[in-house]
């Protein structure tokens, strides 16, 4: 069973994912730039959620650097403005055969609207160019609201995944499927990550314009 780590795991999305993943994986590590903040986040989770077995036994805290050195699958839950500099600083800690999943969304607010603020290259593809050869990269989770996951309310949502290969996709799909109510859907290769990174802006506008609380994506087929 792979060990899971979250870089920037002290934020809303990282914390929420860590809680769910600790129900299925032996080791789920919340990473931070500051180990004390990671420890404090773990303490807060235990206070708010109670001393449940899966939290006590499977949830750990560490520095971002130790997360990258020690975990098999690393999820980057970082603000887009800091994602690339963070991965650059951690690049030497990565090793072959790890999987790096970017949950980063790229958006800005102009007036009352959110816009996907795309660069020429997606954050996920930039990450791919920074990490050592043999680290597999994917992009996912951009349309999953952290608040709903954290509350552990019943959820039914699709997680769109772009991945550098179908083999990488399968590894990320296992991770996504381990969270009850989430269904992974393969979108295509990393060239499509830029589209996923822009979806959060649309979801936020949909929430505001239609007064929907924590909307998410669910693809129907007939
Ligand atoms: N929240 C959601 O519902 C949601 C849903 C889908 C996608 N996303 C995307 O997922 C990513 C994470 O979202 P979030 O809401 O969890 O973000 P967040 O709470 O704003 O930040 C996550 C973590 O990033 C680290 N961080 C902050 N500034 C940093 C810097 N200058 N350098 C390096 N690390 C820094 C912090 O960890 P430390 O201080 O502990 O290092 C922070 O706890 C974002 O790209 C967001 O757009 C969010």
Topology:
Layout: E1 4-7, H1 12-21, E2 28-32, H2 35-49, H3 53-58, E3 59-63, H4 64-70, E4 73-76, H5 80-90, E5 99-102, E6 107-110, E7 113-116, H6 123-130, E8 136-139, H7 146-151, E9 157-163, H8 166-177, E10 182-188, H9 193-209
Parallel strand pairs: 1-2, 1-4, 2-3, 4-5, 5-8, 9-10
Antiparallel strand pairs: 6-7, 8-9
Helix pairs in contact: 5-6
Bound molecules: NADP nicotinamide-adenine-dinucleotide phosphate (NAP).
Q: How would you characterize the overall build of this protein?
A:
- The structure is a single chain.
- The chain has 222 residues and is α/β, with parallel strands linked by helices.
- It has a single domain, classed as Rossmann fold, CATH 3.40.50.720.
- The protein is built from nine helices and ten strands.
- The strands form two sheets. It has an eight-stranded mixed beta sheet with strand order 3-2-1-4-5-8-9-10, with helices on both faces. A two-stranded antiparallel ribbon has the order 6-7.
- Helix 1 links the parallel strand 1 and strand 2.
- The mean pLDDT is 96.
- Bound molecules: NADP nicotinamide-adenine-dinucleotide phosphate.
- NADP nicotinamide-adenine-dinucleotide phosphate (NAP) binds next to helix 1 and helix 5.
């Amino acid at each position: 069973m792979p060990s899971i780590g979250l870089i920037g795991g002290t934020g809303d999305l990282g914390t929420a994912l860590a809680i769910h993943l600790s129900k299925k994986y032996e080791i789920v590590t919340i990473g931070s730039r500051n180990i004390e903040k990671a420890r404090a986040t773990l303490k807060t989770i235990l206070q708010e959620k109670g001393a449940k077995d899966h939290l006590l036994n499977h949830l750990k805290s560490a520095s971002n650097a130790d997360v990258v050195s020690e975990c098999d699958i690393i999820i980057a839950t970082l603000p887009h403005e800091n994602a690339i500099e963070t991965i650059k600083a951690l690049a030497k800690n990565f090793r072959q055969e790890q999987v790096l999943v970017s949950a980063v969304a790229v958006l800005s607010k102009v007036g009352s609207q959110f816009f996907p603020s795309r660069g020429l290259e997606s954050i996920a593809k930039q990450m791919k160019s920074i990490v050592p050869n043999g680290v597999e990269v994917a992009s996912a989770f951009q349309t999953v609201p952290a608040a709903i996951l954290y509350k552990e309310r019943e959820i039914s949502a699709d997680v769109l995944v772009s991945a550098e290969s179908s083999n990488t996709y399968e590894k990320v799909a296992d991770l996504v499927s381990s969270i009850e109510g989430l269904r992974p859907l393969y979108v295509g290769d990393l060239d499509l990550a830029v589209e996923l990174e822009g979806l959060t802006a649309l979801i936020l506008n949909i929430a505001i314009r239609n007064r929907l609380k924590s909307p998410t994506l669910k693809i129907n087929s007939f």
